[in-house]
Hints:
By secondary structure, the protein is of the alpha+beta class. It has one helix spanning 15-38; strands at residues 51-58, 64-70, 75-84, 91-102, 108-116, 119-123. The model is unreliable at 1-6 (pLDDT under 50).
Amino acid sequence: MFNFTLCGIVNNKYSNLFRFLSQLVVVVALCFLASVLAAPLEGSSTRSLPPLDHEEIHDEFGQFALRYVTAEGTVVSERGHLIPTPDGASYVMVYEGEVSYIGDDGKRYVTKYTAGLDGYHAEGDHLPVAPEVPEVPKVPEVPESAPAS
């Protein structure tokens, strides 16, 4: 009268419920695993020292200049100012700044950046630089051939 599945426990009437519950258990287990893997490692250090020096200036248009220095030697300075868009209809905030920090090797690393209408650009001696694009030779013109007869 009952149609048992391979495991011999669940009959056909409850197989959809069994399938749903087993999928739910798998999803819950994966969520638990993801949360465990995303948790910070015990003993990992985060450097969150308060700034030694902090200056910040704003105006009514949203333009700003800021600078701060941390106890570990990190120096951040940034400036944001408005420039007109190419069509002159509105303004865009352009950012330029510099971040310097002392690495684990004791060297000071300096990154200068700009962000505006032409995108984000960063430069520093420690950053990789894309190779120059080689010049492509011109293809000689091919004379038109006579039409086939």
